[in-house]
Amino acid sequence: MSKTFYITTPIYYPSAKFHIGSAYTTCLCDSVTRYKKLKGYDTRFLTGTDEHGQKIEEAAKANGKTPQEHVDYIAGLAQDLWKQLEIQNDDFIRTTQKRHEDVVEEIFEQLLANDDIYLGEYTGNYCVSCESYFTPTQLVDGDKCPDCGQPTTVLKEETYFLRLSKYADRLLEFIDQNPNFIFPETRKNEVVSFIKSGLLDLSVSRTAFSWGVKVRSNPKHVVYVWIDALSNYITALGYGSKDDSLYQKYWVNGNEVVHVVGKDILRFHAIYWPIMLLALNIPITFRLYVHGWYLMKDGKMSKSKGNVIYPEQLVERYGLDAFRYYIVREIQYGNDGVFTPEDYIKRINTDLVNDYGNLVSRTISMVNKYFGGKVQKTKHDHSLIQFEQELGQVAKVAVQDYQTLMDEFKLGDALKALSILVGRTNKLIDDTSPWDLAKQEETKTALESVMYHLLESIRIITVLYQPFLMETCPKVYGYLNVDEEFQGFESLVFGSKESYEVVKKAAHLFPRLDEEQESEIIRSWMLDTSLKEPEIEPILPEITIDDFSKIDIRAGKVLEAAYHPNADKLLVMKVDTGDKVRNIVSGIAKFYQPDDMVGKTVLIIANLKPVKLRGELSEGMILAAENEEGELHVIEGANALNPGSKIS
Ligand code: MSP
User: Fold this and answer.
1) How many Å apart are CA 429 and CA 550, to the nearest integer?
2) Is 8 strand, coil or helix?
3) Closest ligand 1 atom to the C-alpha of 273?
4) Each residue of 566-582: pLDDT tens digit?
């Protein structure tokens, strides 16, 4: 049976559109999952959104929405983004889902029943934005939050506390006995000294707002966001539900469980979460991988500084693979990384255009030129054989190093190890000068062998690139005619494929980018603070089916159409609605010419009181909607209906 591997991202706050920082964690987890799949693991990958709390309640209010409308909208955007980035998550948990809320309610009651949670009172400086209390020594500039710099307010509230101190020794013991629990090591040291400095009991409920999971035995309290949020890792597996088979398989009896988290949420995952598990008698099976942040030259990304960069823009202009490659290549293990437009373009040009892309296209064209596209593994005794042997050796080392580094989550370093192989393969061309070998018949076998070595090396590189370059690798397999048998990790032995037949001509995998011009374009996106987040209008108050039945919507066929004589924006149409032919005026002239409309079957509100629009009678309204670009689209898809068919 295959080994299991369960990996999670943090669940993201749905407070705004996601920038490249949140995409980093998710892409990292996705690449690791793809790698583990290639290694034969039975994987499960979870991501989601953390949808409760005062911050969300307030953001929704500011947008004129209910909290649920607000989180539905942003969770939708998040899922669209993950689709665009080809993230292969198996599940998407939202903390407002019933499957999660029910279990959180139960977890809270269980902790109460065991006296791990007790009711008390808390007074302190509270930051609404970070949803945290701070002690006077932690505050900056008097009353400002040390994390976000916003003023805090003094709050006094009745609250439930989780007894952290009770478990401090057991946790220290656990960390000591499990040296791989937190990595990198420096983060572990931070955690140990924090615990040793003394743990204060943690406030785990709030009464000041209501957008959260209600405490069942005392519903004026809602569960404070961290107990709610952290539980997602097991509620998504069905813990505490009727069917907990995934929980048993991946968590309790699983082989590897990894939570990937940013450095800012280390304490919550390394202290509060294991203590919750200890208190609930749930095995601590997870390890933590703690990563750094993507920063900009002038510090954190922030809209007001005008330095935010969104993944969509980079993907649309430079392609998915370039983005997915850059995002995990640029940050070094555990450290912060700085995004600059120049580095982005340089990285693509160097690693993907020059080194890999060029290698593939040069090799394919030489194999065609010298051997009509077909080469075989051959033996020869030309002195150049030493270069081939060296390449085989470098490939062996790269395959090893890459896997060791991937297993340690050092994705950037694994890609660097792979770059060494790409470089060495390009060097084989320089070392052996195939164009000279092609001049004499005696060196034909040696030339074929060089070509074979290039192709075999490209194949191995491509197998290893699969977790990162999801669009390119299948293309390269196509160019080289590599079937599935030689795409897996078991085929990573140099020389395992005996022959190649390549395509006649391969398109360039990555177009070369003009560094100056493209950097300028990216910079202009960053400065574009007007970049509006797409908004949906708030849903109107609920109506009943009786209210709806008062609106009579019919299919209508447009028989004639003309511009309104006195208004640019209006078309005047004759529409057959079954009962009669109506005169209908509609404000769609900017988007539809009269001829576009004739013959269309559209949807009409047929019992709207007739009105005169600029002197023309309108006996109904055509249904249409505006998209994000402000273009109006008439609702179509009713061609199969006869004029007069009623829409219900
Ligand atoms: N909701 C909590 C997590 C609960 S997990 C049980 C939260 N959400 S968050 O949206 O603020 O952050 C989610 C993750 O994104 C964190 O790991 C955070 O470190 C990461 N990042 C946010 N900005 C980032 C960068 N600029 N760079 C890299 N990661 C960044 O915290």
Assistant:
1) 77
2) strand
3) 6
4) 888 899 999 999 999 99
Ligand 1 pocket, residue 250 CB under 6 Å: no
- How crowded is residue 593: how many other Cβ atoms within 10 Å of its Cβ? 12
The sheet that has 4-8: what strands, in order across it?
91-94, 42-49, 4-8, 256-262, 286-291, 182-183
Residue among 8, 19, 25 to mutate when testing ligand 1 (max atoms within 8 A of CB) = 25
Residue-wise pLDDT tens digits, 223-253: 988 999 999 999 999 999 999 999 999 999 9
CB contact at 8 A, 235 and 100: yes
SS3 sequence, 158-191?
EEEEECCHHHHHHHHHHHHHCCCCEECHHHHHHH
Number of residues assigned to the chain: 648
Measure 314 CA to ligand 1 centroid, in angstroms.
20
Q: Of the ranges 110-114, 203-207, 469-473, which one carries the lowest mean pLDDT score? A: 203-207
Distance 448 CA to ligand 1 centre (A): 52
Whose tokens are 């051997």? That residue is: 371
Contact 50 CB / ligand 1 (< 6 Å): yes
* Most confident of the ranges 6-15, 475-484, 528-537: 475-484
Average pLDDT value for residue range 155-167: 91
Beta bridge partners of 47: 92
Ligand 1 pocket check for 273: Cβ under 6 Å: no
pLDDT digits (tens, 9 = 90+) for 585-637: 999 998 899 999 999 999 999 998 888 888 889 999 999 987 666 678 999 87
Question: Rounded to an integer, what distance in angstroms lies between the CA atom of residue 128 and that of residue 152?
Answer: 7
415 membership: H or E segment, kind and range: helix 411-432
CA-nearest residue, atom 23 of ligand 1: 21
Please work out whether the CB of residue 147 comes within 6 Å of at least one atom of ligand 1.
no
**Ligand 1 atom 30 nearest Cα:** 21
- The residue whose C-alpha atom lies closest to atom 5 belonging to ligand 1 is 10
Domains of the chain, earliest start first: 4-291 (3.40.50.620), 338-501 (1.10.730.10), 539-647 (2.40.50.140)
- Residue 48, ligand 1, Cβ within 6 A: no
Ligand 1 nearest-atom number relative to CA 300? 26
- Inform me whether the pLDDT recorded for 532 exceeds 60: no
Residue-level pLDDT at 529: 58
Cβ(264) – ligand 1 distance below 6 Å: yes
Structure tokens at 332: 């070094």
For ligand 1, is residue 293 a contact (CB within 6 Å)?
yes
Mutate to test the pocket of ligand 1, among 7, 20, 22, 187 (most ligand atoms within 8 A of CB): 22
Mean pLDDT of 69-82: 93
Query: What band does 447 get if pLDDT is binned at 50, 70 and 90?
Result: very high
- For residues 384-390, give the mean pLDDT: 94
pLDDT band at 542 (very low <50, low <70, confident <90, very high): low
Ligand 1 within 6 A of CB of 316: no
Q: How far is the CA of 622 from the centre of ligand 1 (A)?
A: 45
SS3 category, 364: helix
Q: Is 231 in the pocket of ligand 1 (CB under 6 A)?
A: no
Q: Average pLDDT, whole number, for the chain? A: 92
